[in-house]
């Protein structure tokens, strides 16, 4: 069975975000193919995609390596998200479906319940699903894809402190959904802008300064069953 390149791409990207491969380390096709149990063809295709996304760079005499973004590049990502998240919410107010609203309302109910209980790990996952669904509700595949890439790269470059008031944070999520349900694009944009600015303040750079470049890649990781990964 031929494993799709996009599944290999997802697996490598997830491992980069998780820190399995250090910044600047080499990504050899042979080792990656062995780790994910695939041929070198889908690995080669995946590396091209990841280079286009900014996770991988090709260096002379070294080949594919994990990218080493600068602090300015990392800051630019947060600024881009602060511009695009409110745009997505405003679009969602005009284009959302009842199915989108049902999912968003369900996530808000769960989030508010978990916030009252203080379950921070659940809240992080629920918040990610909320914003992914909100982007999908915008009806713009290009915007949805761009925001998804931003979320991946921000998760790679930053750690996020838990909100000081998770109940208040999820109240903002609820306000966004209420505005989207009413078709009030300006209100949805305004609440999302405030929410995104507060969330941005909780981000802390994982790699302050320039890390030492290394040509090694971790080879002690166990093989991955690529067919079990989400597509």
TrEMBL record:
Pfam families: FCD, GntR. Residues 219-231 have a biased composition (Polar residues). The keyword Cytoplasm does not apply. PROSITE patterns: HTH_GNTR. Residues 2-69 form the HTH gntR-type domain. PANTHER family: GLUCONATE OPERON TRANSCRIPTIONAL REPRESSOR, TRANSCRIPTIONAL REGULATOR, GNTR FAMILY. This is GntR family transcriptional regulator. It comes from Streptomyces phyllanthi.
């Amino acid at each position: 069975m031929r494993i799709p390149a996009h599944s290999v791409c997802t697996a490598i990207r997830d491992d980069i975000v998780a820190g399995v491969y250090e910044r600047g380390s080499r990504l050899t096709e042979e080792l990656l193919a062995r780790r994910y149990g695939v041929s070198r063809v889908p690995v080669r295709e995946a590396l091209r995609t990841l280079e286009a996304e900014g996770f991988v760079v090709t260096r002379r005499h070294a080949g594919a390596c994990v990218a080493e973004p600068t602090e300015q590049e990392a800051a630019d990502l947060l600024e881009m998200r602060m511009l695009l998240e409110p745009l997505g919410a405003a679009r969602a107010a005009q284009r959302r479906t009842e199915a989108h609203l049902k999912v968003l309302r369900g996530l808000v109910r769960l989030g508010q319940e978990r916030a009252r209980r203080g379950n921070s790990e659940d809240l992080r996952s629920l918040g990610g699903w909320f914003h992914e669904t909100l982007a999908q509700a915008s009806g713009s595949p290009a915007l949805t894809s761009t925001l998804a890439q931003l979320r991946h790269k921000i998760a790679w470059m930053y750690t996020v402190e838990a909100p000081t008031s998770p109940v208040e944070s999820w109240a903002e999520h609820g306000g966004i959904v209420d505005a989207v349900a009413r078709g009030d694009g300006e209100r949805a944009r305004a609440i999302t802008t405030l929410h995104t600015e507060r969330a941005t303040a909780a981000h802390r750079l994982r790699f302050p300064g320039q890390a030492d470049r290394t040509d090694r890649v971790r080879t002690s990781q166990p093989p991955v069953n690529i067919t079990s990964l989400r597509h």
